[in-house]
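tool_call: predict_structure(chain=1)
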Amino acid sequence: MTREIIAILRGIQLHEACAITDVLIEAGITKIEVPLNSPQPLDSISAMVAHAGDRAIIGAGTVLQVDDVSKLARIGAQMVVSPDCCADVISATKSAGMLSYPGVLTPTEAFAALRAGADGLKFFPAFKLGLDGLSALKAVLPPEVKTYAVGGAGPGNFADWQGAGITGFGIGTGIYKPGFSAQDVAARAAEIVAAYDKAFA
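tool_result:
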Protein backbone atom coordinates (compact mmCIF):
# COMPACT_ATOMS: atom_id res chain seq x y z
CA MET A 1 0.00 0.00 0.00
CA THR A 2 1.16 3.54 -0.72
CA ARG A 3 0.93 5.51 2.48
CA GLU A 4 0.43 9.26 2.41
CA ILE A 5 3.21 9.90 4.90
CA ILE A 6 6.02 12.35 4.17
CA ALA A 7 9.12 11.88 6.32
CA ILE A 8 10.72 15.27 6.98
CA LEU A 9 14.45 14.83 7.62
CA ARG A 10 15.41 18.31 8.81
CA GLY A 11 19.09 18.44 9.70
CA ILE A 12 20.07 15.14 8.09
CA GLN A 13 23.68 14.88 6.90
CA LEU A 14 25.06 13.32 3.76
CA HIS A 15 26.87 10.46 5.51
CA GLU A 16 23.61 9.10 7.00
CA ALA A 17 21.13 9.97 4.27
CA CYS A 18 21.08 6.69 2.35
CA ALA A 19 20.94 4.45 5.44
CA ILE A 20 17.99 6.40 6.83
CA THR A 21 16.29 6.35 3.44
CA ASP A 22 16.57 2.56 3.44
CA VAL A 23 14.97 2.10 6.88
CA LEU A 24 12.11 4.43 5.96
CA ILE A 25 11.38 2.50 2.78
CA GLU A 26 11.62 -0.82 4.62
CA ALA A 27 9.07 0.47 7.15
CA GLY A 28 6.70 1.47 4.33
CA ILE A 29 7.31 5.21 4.08
CA THR A 30 8.11 6.14 0.49
CA LYS A 31 7.80 9.95 0.45
CA ILE A 32 10.90 11.58 1.88
CA GLU A 33 11.91 15.24 2.03
CA VAL A 34 15.14 16.93 3.03
CA PRO A 35 14.48 20.55 4.04
CA LEU A 36 16.79 23.00 2.32
CA ASN A 37 17.87 24.42 5.67
CA SER A 38 19.66 21.14 6.41
CA PRO A 39 23.46 20.77 5.97
CA GLN A 40 24.37 20.23 2.28
CA PRO A 41 20.77 19.43 1.36
CA LEU A 42 21.31 19.15 -2.38
CA ASP A 43 24.14 16.67 -1.87
CA SER A 44 21.97 14.53 0.39
CA ILE A 45 19.00 14.65 -1.98
CA SER A 46 21.19 13.79 -4.96
CA ALA A 47 22.66 10.79 -3.13
CA MET A 48 19.23 9.61 -1.99
CA VAL A 49 17.79 9.90 -5.50
CA ALA A 50 20.69 7.89 -6.94
CA HIS A 51 20.35 5.31 -4.16
CA ALA A 52 16.57 4.92 -3.98
CA GLY A 53 14.84 7.14 -6.51
CA ASP A 54 13.22 4.09 -8.07
CA ARG A 55 11.78 2.99 -4.71
CA ALA A 56 10.67 6.27 -3.17
CA ILE A 57 9.62 9.83 -4.00
CA ILE A 58 12.51 11.95 -2.79
CA GLY A 59 12.56 15.71 -2.72
CA ALA A 60 13.10 18.89 -0.77
CA GLY A 61 11.27 20.85 1.86
CA THR A 62 11.40 24.50 2.89
CA VAL A 63 11.62 25.44 -0.80
CA LEU A 64 11.03 29.19 -1.05
CA GLN A 65 12.67 30.29 -4.32
CA VAL A 66 12.17 29.43 -7.99
CA ASP A 67 15.96 29.15 -8.30
CA ASP A 68 15.89 26.33 -5.76
CA VAL A 69 13.31 24.50 -7.86
CA SER A 70 15.68 24.62 -10.83
CA LYS A 71 18.53 23.22 -8.75
CA LEU A 72 16.31 20.39 -7.51
CA ALA A 73 15.17 19.51 -11.00
CA ARG A 74 18.80 19.21 -12.13
CA ILE A 75 19.61 16.62 -9.45
CA GLY A 76 16.54 14.50 -10.14
CA ALA A 77 14.37 15.44 -7.16
CA GLN A 78 10.76 14.34 -7.51
CA MET A 79 8.95 16.49 -4.95
CA VAL A 80 8.93 20.08 -3.72
CA VAL A 81 7.41 20.94 -0.33
CA SER A 82 7.14 24.51 0.97
CA PRO A 83 5.97 26.14 4.19
CA ASP A 84 4.08 28.77 2.18
CA CYS A 85 1.95 29.19 -0.92
CA CYS A 86 4.03 30.79 -3.67
CA ALA A 87 2.42 30.52 -7.11
CA ASP A 88 5.77 31.01 -8.88
CA VAL A 89 7.37 28.13 -6.96
CA ILE A 90 4.37 25.88 -7.62
CA SER A 91 4.33 26.69 -11.35
CA ALA A 92 8.08 26.16 -11.68
CA THR A 93 7.79 22.85 -9.83
CA LYS A 94 5.07 21.57 -12.15
CA SER A 95 6.91 22.82 -15.25
CA ALA A 96 9.91 20.77 -14.11
CA GLY A 97 7.77 17.64 -13.74
CA MET A 98 7.90 17.43 -9.96
CA LEU A 99 5.16 17.02 -7.35
CA SER A 100 4.18 20.23 -5.56
CA TYR A 101 3.04 20.36 -1.93
CA PRO A 102 2.83 23.99 -0.76
CA GLY A 103 2.01 25.03 2.78
CA VAL A 104 -1.39 26.63 3.37
CA LEU A 105 -3.61 27.45 6.32
CA THR A 106 -6.52 29.50 4.97
CA PRO A 107 -9.13 28.95 2.22
CA THR A 108 -7.54 31.76 0.19
CA GLU A 109 -4.13 30.10 0.30
CA ALA A 110 -5.58 26.65 -0.38
CA PHE A 111 -7.41 27.72 -3.52
CA ALA A 112 -4.49 29.87 -4.71
CA ALA A 113 -2.26 26.81 -4.44
CA LEU A 114 -4.69 24.63 -6.36
CA ARG A 115 -5.11 27.24 -9.11
CA ALA A 116 -1.32 27.34 -9.47
CA GLY A 117 -1.26 23.56 -9.99
CA ALA A 118 -0.40 22.08 -6.58
CA ASP A 119 -0.68 18.29 -6.28
CA GLY A 120 -1.67 18.48 -2.61
CA LEU A 121 -2.01 20.90 0.27
CA LYS A 122 0.25 20.90 3.32
CA PHE A 123 -1.70 22.36 6.22
CA PHE A 124 0.97 23.98 8.37
CA PRO A 125 1.01 24.41 11.29
CA ALA A 126 -1.82 21.90 11.48
CA PHE A 127 -2.28 22.24 15.24
CA LYS A 128 -3.34 25.86 14.66
CA LEU A 129 -5.94 24.81 12.09
CA GLY A 130 -7.27 22.01 14.25
CA LEU A 131 -9.71 19.24 13.46
CA ASP A 132 -12.72 21.54 13.29
CA GLY A 133 -10.87 23.93 10.98
CA LEU A 134 -9.95 21.08 8.65
CA SER A 135 -13.53 19.80 8.62
CA ALA A 136 -14.78 23.25 7.65
CA LEU A 137 -12.22 23.58 4.85
CA LYS A 138 -12.94 20.09 3.53
CA ALA A 139 -16.54 21.15 2.98
CA VAL A 140 -15.43 23.60 0.27
CA LEU A 141 -12.32 21.91 -1.15
CA PRO A 142 -12.69 19.61 -4.16
CA PRO A 143 -13.07 16.08 -2.74
CA GLU A 144 -10.12 14.69 -4.71
CA VAL A 145 -7.61 17.17 -3.25
CA LYS A 146 -4.91 15.51 -1.15
CA THR A 147 -4.42 17.16 2.23
CA TYR A 148 -1.56 16.69 4.68
CA ALA A 149 -1.37 17.71 8.34
CA VAL A 150 2.09 18.93 9.32
CA GLY A 151 2.88 20.16 12.81
CA GLY A 152 1.10 18.56 15.73
CA ALA A 153 0.07 15.35 13.96
CA GLY A 154 1.45 12.02 15.12
CA PRO A 155 0.57 8.38 15.81
CA GLY A 156 -1.51 9.34 18.83
CA ASN A 157 -3.96 11.44 16.81
CA PHE A 158 -3.85 10.02 13.28
CA ALA A 159 -7.34 8.56 13.72
CA ASP A 160 -8.74 11.94 14.80
CA TRP A 161 -7.28 13.66 11.76
CA GLN A 162 -8.52 10.88 9.49
CA GLY A 163 -12.00 11.36 10.91
CA ALA A 164 -11.82 15.05 10.02
CA GLY A 165 -10.94 14.17 6.42
CA ILE A 166 -7.15 14.43 6.15
CA THR A 167 -5.37 12.43 3.44
CA GLY A 168 -1.99 12.07 5.11
CA PHE A 169 0.75 13.56 7.23
CA GLY A 170 4.18 15.14 7.20
CA ILE A 171 6.22 13.96 10.17
CA GLY A 172 9.35 15.83 11.23
CA THR A 173 10.84 15.54 14.72
CA GLY A 174 8.55 12.59 15.44
CA ILE A 175 10.60 10.51 12.99
CA TYR A 176 14.00 12.20 12.77
CA LYS A 177 16.13 14.63 14.74
CA PRO A 178 19.85 15.28 14.27
CA GLY A 179 21.68 12.61 16.21
CA PHE A 180 19.09 9.87 15.64
CA SER A 181 20.58 6.63 14.33
CA ALA A 182 19.03 4.64 11.51
CA GLN A 183 17.75 2.25 14.17
CA ASP A 184 16.08 5.14 16.02
CA VAL A 185 14.37 6.20 12.82
CA ALA A 186 13.33 2.62 12.02
CA ALA A 187 11.62 2.25 15.41
CA ARG A 188 9.72 5.52 15.04
CA ALA A 189 8.79 4.75 11.43
CA ALA A 190 7.35 1.37 12.46
CA GLU A 191 5.16 3.03 15.10
CA ILE A 192 4.00 5.70 12.64
CA VAL A 193 3.16 3.18 9.92
CA ALA A 194 1.23 0.94 12.34
CA ALA A 195 -0.82 3.90 13.59
CA TYR A 196 -1.46 5.11 10.03
CA ASP A 197 -2.57 1.67 8.87
CA LYS A 198 -4.93 1.36 11.81
CA ALA A 199 -6.42 4.82 11.24
CA PHE A 200 -6.89 4.36 7.50
CA ALA A 201 -7.83 0.66 7.42
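agent: The first strand starts at residue 5 and ends at 8. Proceeding to next step.
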